[in-house]
Amino acid sequence: MFLSVFDMFKVGVGPSSSHTMGPMVAAARFLDTMRASPFDFHGLRASLHGSLAFTGVGHATDRATILGLAGFQPDSYDHDKAEAILAQINATHTVHPESLPALHFNPQDDLRFDFGPNLPGHANGMILMATDAQGDVILQETYYSIGGGFVMTEAELAAGKDTDEGAPVPFPFKSAAEMLEMAQISGKSIAEMKKANEISRGCTESLAKGCARLWQVMNDCIDRGLTTDGTLPGGLGVKRRAKSIHDALQAERGMNLNAPHTINDWMSAYAMAVNEENAAGGQVVTAPTNGAAGVLPAVIRYWLDHVPGATASRIDEFLLTAAAIGGLVKFNASISGAEAGCQAEVGSASAMAAAGLCAVMGGTPEQVENAAEIALEHHLGMTCDPVKGLVQVPCIERNGLGAIKAVSAASLALRGDGTHFVPLDAVIETMRQTGADMHEKYKETSLGGLAVNVPNC
Ligand code: SF4
């Protein structure tokens, strides 16, 4: 199994990796299929199913699908250009994807929210169709947005084609137990093994440059969030809070006013800054998803700004370690809220951040595995119930708490010797089983929990 650090951490657009980025990626893939096809296309249609239908409006799935069919991609998303193109599509009912003819697409009629049963493969399903001059469908593909911006066709899902097609990597660990065994035999850290796997598929220079860019985008996102106030879009009237919390923390600095636990407010402010940007449709990095995108950057920023001895030169090590843990969770359970609830999103993010922090603070592979285990264990059972289908409540604050748990988990692990009672593999399997047993209304449908108990007019 190999899942690159650049698959786990992808530069993209808010508010949701599964509901915004995934559909945009699916649309891009469908356009490629059309380009490779001999047919003469005249129009497009799309239908959204399961969670993509239930929380699609709140998560901007409709917008992402339309823009994707017009040729937009998450990595190069330009907000102002997107607004202009959307207005044009609504006025002309036509999209102009590159290397294809102009195609009829009226969002009102040609994009359908299907509130019937889920498609068979996954809770996040969508069907994209291309039509001929008579309006008959001549090409159709079903896509599943399986979390974190990952997309699979029906056939890929059935074949189990999830993470890897390339040559074998030097350290092909599929479980935490295998990871620890390989670390012991090789004498390498988790980050060193992950780096060797990455280098076997690419080159050192692109790895360093890519990691630097990821941290740059994450940190820029924190800074934008810490300097922007106002009300978030979507109709809930949620006010941005990261800036005011950060302003207050800065004003209190050096005044000896604060209890030690105020450090938690710094972590929350960093995480909330990212998730407020995400909720506003800004640029974020999936870590491992958009909804959970604040946890890991907040922990890195906390480490860099508040922990003596921290150095930006070890951010690669942090990201590689976190990606190794995220890969184990994705491979053996899920990072999708629609599949397994928020334990799979903020829980996974917290485990990844705990592992990364433990590693850069000198943890052994056993302590790193322990840190991830503690963080994930104490998110087990957490449901996904976003109010009004927006990635705002409880998501924004929850990222702050996920960061705080990650730091506590790393700290606890560093106080031990790596031996512990519950293996990470057992927690990942428990998360998978709990997710499978979880009622659908708690899996990103907004049909239960806070979503039905909090007034959202
Ligand atoms: S509750 Fe958690 S899983 Fe659900 S949308 Fe919010 S962050 Fe994502």
Short description:
It catalyses: L-serine = pyruvate + NH4(+). By secondary structure, this protein is α+β, with helices and mostly antiparallel strands.
Key descriptive features of the protein:
single chain; 457 residues; alpha+beta; 60s Ribosomal Protein L30, Chain: A; 2-methylcitrate dehydratase PrpD; 2 domains; five-stranded mixed sheet; two-stranded antiparallel sheet; 20 helices; 51% helix; 10% strand; globular; binds iron/sulfur cluster
Q: Can you walk me through this structure?
A:
It is an enzyme of class 4 (lyase). InterPro entries: ASB_dom_sf, Fe-S_L-Ser, Fe-S_L-Ser_mono, Ser_deHydtase-like_asu, Ser_deHydtase_bsu. Pathway: Carbohydrate biosynthesis; gluconeogenesis. This is L-serine dehydratase. It is a single chain. With 457 residues, the protein is α+β, with helices and mostly antiparallel strands. It has a 5-stranded mixed β-sheet. The longest helix is centred in the middle third of the chain and has 23 residues. The mean pLDDT is 95. Bound molecules: iron/sulfur cluster. The site of iron/sulfur cluster has 13 residues, from helix 18.
